[in-house]
Design a protein that fits this description.
8 helices, globular, about 20% strand
Length: about 300
């Protein structure tokens, strides 16, 4: 068993909405019980402009604010320097021909809120590892045409993935599998008073469509590579639309496997290179290869049929 602090609450992106609905002039969010006592938390990231200013403060500062509020009435000034502008971002796509013209998409996103080594430098590395491996495999031994996708705008409401799905809607029926690879993270703990790695990987989630042959392939790959602390879970575990980067593919009816870990610091500036769980990179890569190989001889319609 493992205890895990998730990087989001049940509100997901809607952290400010209750305050807005109540008529608040501003939002001050307290990151109570947040390891490391940080205030650098990049949520929401849905690219929606709110009508009031908002700011996060650390749990320690929140305790001081509560103490002040318990006394005389308090006047608070919220001053925020931020920039919102329209930009053009680009999805990055590469292809390898395969044994047939149906498609396996292997993807992740290439943007993040900070330096964001785990979210999602590690995902980029995992996708590039797949491209490097499959480029050395003869075309006839690649189960299908392979499309490698690094989409933009994940931290702007998933704009890149959504646009890709919309623009290629007519082609999605020929997609056998969309395999997303995100976040190879170290587990961190502050039980000693100092934030440090435990030496373990953060719990691994394999969001997998409820297709028996696909679930079996994922479980077999996990066992073969001894990827402990893994959970095979339905994409809709947190709601009808997945909270992962592969969500729009799933909503379009494409069979999905979305590997990720969800450390508490996923949207925090503390996500630097030392947070990547490097021992995970090779076995997760091998497991992904096994899952892609399992689609050999399985058509897009056959996969959907189970």
């Amino acid at each position: 068993s493992t205890r895990q602090i998730l990087p989001f609450g049940r509100e997901l992106q809607n952290v400010m909405e209750p305050s807005i609905s109540a008529g608040a002039a501003g939002f001050i969010g307290v990151l109570r019980d947040y390891p490391g006592d940080s205030n650098q938390y990049y949520v929401p990231y849905d690219a929606i402009e709110r009508p009031i200013p908002g700011v996060w403060i650390s749990g320690g500062d929140g305790n001081r604010l509560r103490a002040l509020l318990s006394g005389a009435p308090l006047r608070v000034k919220v001053s925020i320097d931020s920039v919102r502008e329209m930009i053009t971002a680009h999805n990055i796509v590469g292809e390898l021909p395969g044994a047939d013209e149906e498609v396996v998409i292997i993807g992740s996103h290439h943007d993040g809120p900070w330096a964001s080594a785990v979210e999602d430098g590690s995902g980029i590395a995992l996708v590039l590892a797949q491209a490097a491996y499959w480029s050395q495999v003869p075309q006839a031994e690649r189960p299908h045409r392979l499309l490698f996708l690094l989409n933009a705008g994940h931290m702007a409401g998933g704009a890149g993935q959504r646009t890709f799905v919309e623009e290629h809607a007519a082609e999605l029926e020929s997609v056998v599998l969309e395999f997303h690879l995100e976040h190879a993270a170290n587990e961190l703990s502050d039980e000693t008073g100092v934030l440090r790695a435990t030496g373990l990987p953060e719990s691994r989630w394999w969001f997998t469509s409820l297709i028996p042959r696909l679930q079996d392939a994922v479980r077999s790959a996990i066992e073969a590579e001894d990827l402990q602390r893994s959970m095979v879970v339905p994409p809709t575990m947190f709601g009808p639309k997945p909270t992962t980067d592969g969500a729009d593919f799933y909503m379009a009816g494409v069979p999905l496997v979305n590997y990720l870990t969800a450390p508490f610091y996923l949207f925090d500036a503390v996500d630097t290179l030392d947070k990547i769980h490097r021992p995970s990179l090779v076995p997760v890569t091998h497991a992904a290869i096994r899952i892609v190989e399992s689609t050999m001889g399985v058509s897009a319609s056959g996969m959907r049929a189970g």
